[in-house]
Design a protein that fits this description.
The complex is a heterodimer of chains A (335) and B (361). Chain A is globular, with a radius of gyration of 21 Å. Chain A has a single domain, classed as ABC transporter involved in vitamin B12 uptake, BtuC. Helices cover 71% and strands 0% of the residues of chain A. In chain A, helix 3 runs parallel beside helix 8. Chain A is built from 14 helices and no strands. Chain B folds into 2 domains: 170 residues, 3-Layer(aba) Sandwich (Rossmann fold), CATH 3.40.50; 134 residues, Rossmann fold (3-Layer(aba) Sandwich), CATH 3.40.50.2300. Helix content of chain B is 38%, strand content 17%. In chain B, helix 5 crosses helix 6 and helix 7 crosses helix 8. Chain B is elongated and about 65 Å long. The N and C termini of chain B lie far apart (70 Å). Classes of the chains: A mainly alpha (335), B alpha/beta (361). Chains A and B meet through helix 2, helix 5, helix 7, helix 8 and helix 9 of A and helix 1 and helix 3 of B. Chain B: Keywords: Signal.
């Protein structure tokens, strides 16, 4: 966790500042924004995105990406509905569906590590494959009428707070992930793999095994998110979560994780997830149309990818002009 | 080295915590044991209706279509918004740009936060919107489903464009009037398993059993799969296979347009009668050139108009959504709430050369 002293304008700090600005500004502009009901809803709406963003952060830090997460979510949602319809107990369905998530992640991971294929290509393929399987399981049918005990668990808040249960769980998992990423040898290995895979390998880091495990974790979390999605909406469908992977990746990039790997903090991603959710909620409350909402998110993303690069370029050119200054890891070098 | 030790622990931790979560409650909840759930809040009925209550001024209502920028839904919603102006309310249309199951949910929450008196929704998924709608009703927001229903306990009313029975039976009558009740007829449907089409066809077959249609004989039901090309070819096939065919009913907008294109350009023009369900813009040229005399569809403007007035009547306390209650729907006159909180718009509108230019959709 060594940062350049001049790194005061770290991107994740800027995202956090923007988040505070949106929150405070939102509370000022719209009387309906900062109340428990609305915040609880806005947070709950982020459940699946937030959960999946955790393993996605680890993958991207490692220089990998998993585009199949939303399809795993859809497949697991379809399976949940299908098994439920066939009369299985929800307590049996959940572990079974999680195993399917593990298998999906394992397939991604094996294709990437054993065959040495780029994760972008592999998961574009499995994204289509898993979604196809979801349609095989359920077709265009929608299964509903899940037990209230479980749908309540997915929709209600922890008593006395505006925090829905899935988000409370996310908070716990986020702490675990943050510790793993920023305070353990494993976390350092991830950054090492992301910045120089070969160097990491020769330094004795078991690159392939780490990647494989990360894909499996990504699969199982996406599978779990599929169950959360199903119970939260009370509707199991093959098209559930369509396109969600892009929001997750947008949040990870907006959070300051370098798409080339090796840089970023989980805190930034968490701030970005919250920023996306609250901004969307605020725009909606002010009757801003969906089209403008996508434009705002898109612009924010471009700025977030562009700004750190620009800063790095400026810094580098200064460093060259000013003589021998040890350059902090320059992401611009790779592009 | 440290990595090797920590890896399995990390993986195990993730798996164990996930499993622990799933096994936390080992009560054994299956579909059967939970089948009683889903009837949480009863739709309407708890308050008493006052049919003489005036429509409240300044009602805030919102239309939440399946998808914004869908031409059909825009017509429905704009008519509803115009109706709100008539009774001194404020109305708007908001909604997602994609018609996915869950995308309407955040809009429901937003509309509740904005303190709307009523939300009108054309549901993408009858259950996915249910939880938030029930929460909205608990806050005394009135819910009117239109065009596409939600689960029954998640709304106060459903404005149904037309009853399936009425659509089916009226199509037969429409054709019979044009061919004088005699001759071989065929049906050109969409896909073989389309629920709405098959329901209509069943009512058509039942209607044909009546003595006044004894001269008409249904020789074939063809399926064009709502594909323009295929419907075109199916029409061609029908006319070649049944040289004595007098009429075709195509209860699908794609099918009727394709059939009209084929008939209009063939020797059958003027000899074979075509009718069914279509939109005026699609059928205008075929009505003008005499290929088609009459076809039908519900009027989307009236659908939005009726839904808007129904929402106002609910929010003003004139009705609660119980069967048998009556309310006045502006120029459409008095309407009665039917079974399951359904209000039917009425018989489909019949379009012909005289009235087709009054419609633009």
């Amino acid at each position: 966790m060594k940062f350049d002293a001049r790194g005061l304008i770290r991107w994740e700090t800027a995202v956090t500042a923007l988040l505070v600005l949106v929150f405070v500004g939102g509370a000022g502009v719209s009387p309906d924004f900062a109340n428990g009901d609305n915040l609880s809803f806005a947070l709950g709406d982020l459940s699946e995105i937030a959960l999946i963003a955790l393993p996605m952060t680890l993958l991207v830090v490692c220089g990998q990406v998993d585009l199949s997460v939303a399809s795993v979510l859809g497949l697991c949602s379809a399976l949940t509905g299908w098994l439920w319809n066939a009369g299985w107990a929800i307590e049996t369905i959940i572990p079974l569906v999680l195993v399917v998530g593990v298998v999906c992640g394992l397939i991604n991971g094996l294709l990437v590590t054993r065959l040495g294929l780029p994760s972008l290509a592999v998961t574009i393929g499995t994204m289509t494959l898993y979604r196809g399987l979801a349609y095989v399981v359920l077709g265009t049918e929608a299964i509903a009428q899940f037990p209230q005990r479980y749908t309540d668990l997915a929709t209600t808040s922890v008593p006395g707070t505006p925090i829905p249960y899935p988000i409370a769980l996310f908070a716990l998992l986020a702490i675990v992930t943050a510790v793993v990423l920023h305070a353990t040898g494993l976390g350092r290995s991830l950054f090492a793999i992301g910045s120089q895979e070969d160097a990491a390998y020769f330094a004795g880091i078991r690159v392939k095994r780490i990647k494989l495990v990360l894909f499996v974790v990504s699969g199982v979390v996406a599978g779990f998110a599929g169950i959360v999605f199903t119970l939260r909406y009370g509707s199991a469908r093959a098209d559930n979560g369509l396109g969600l992977e892009l929001t997750v990746i947008a949040a990870v990039l907006l959070g300051g994780i370098d798409f080339d790997g090796g840089k970023g903090t989980l805190g930034g991603v968490i701030a970005a997830v919250l920023l996306i959710g609250l901004l969307r909620n605020l725009l909606m409350l002010n009757d801003v149309s969906t089209e403008i909402q996508s434009i705002v998110t898109g612009l924010l993303l471009i700025v977030s990818v562009l700004t750190p690069r620009l800063i790095a370029v400026v810094r580098e050119s200064r460093a060259k002009g000013g003589g021998a200054r040890p350059a902090s890891p320059a992401p611009a070098a790779s592009s | 080295m440290t990595v090797r030790v920590r890896m399995p622990r990390f993986a195990a931790m993730a798996t164990v915590s996930a499993l622990a979560l799933s096994l936390a409650a080992c009560g054994g909840t299956t579909k059967d044991s939970a089948s009683s759930n889903g009837n949480g809040t009863a739709a309407g009925g708890q308050a008493s209706a006052n049919p003489n209550a005036p429509i409240k001024k300044g009602l805030k209502i919102a239309f939440l279509p399946k998808q914004v920028n869908n031409p059909y839904e825009t017509i429905v919603d704009n008519a509803g918004i115009a109706a709100a102006k008539e009774y001194g309310g404020e109305a708007k249309e908001v909604g997602p740009s994609d018609a996915s199951a869950s995308s309407q949910v955040s809009y429901i929450n937003t509309l509740v936060q904005q303190r709307h008196d009523a939300i009108l929704i054309a549901a993408n998924d009858e259950n996915a919107v249910c939880g938030p709608l029930k929460a909205a009703m608990a806050k005394n927001v009135k819910i009117v489903a239109y065009d596409s229903d939600t689960a029954k306990d998640c709304r106060n009313l459903f404005i149904n464009q037309a009853s399936s029975e009425e659509i089916g039976r009226s199509q037969v009558k429409l054709l019979s009037d044009q061919i004088g009740g005699k001759g071989e007829i065929a049906i050109l449907s969409a896909t073989a398993n389309a629920t709405n089409q098959n329901t209509w066809i069943k009512f058509m077959q039942d209607e044909l059993k009546k003595p006044e249609y004894s001269g008409m004989k249904l020789v074939k039901i063809a399926y064009g799969d709502d594909d323009d090309q295929k419907s075109f070819q199916q029409t061609q096939g029908l006319l070649q296979a049944y040289p004595n065919l007098k009429g075709i009913i195509s209860p699908t907008t794609v099918g009727i347009a394709a059939a009209a294109r084929y008939i209009g350009g063939s020797k059958y023009k003027g000899k074979v009668t075509l009718t069914g369900l279509g939109t005026p813009n699609q059928m205008r040229q075929f009505v003008k050139d005499g290929t088609v005399k009459q076809f039908a569809l519900w009027d989307p403007k009236n659908l939005g108009y009726l839904a808007s007035y129904a929402a106002a009547a609910l929010a003003s306390g004139q009705i609660t959504g119980a069967e048998g209650e009556k309310f006045k729907a502006g120029k459409l006159g008095e309407r009665t709430v039917g079974a399951n909180g359904e209000v039917i718009l009425g018989p489909p509108t019949v379009f012909d050369a005289k009235n087709i230019d009054q419609y633009n959709f």
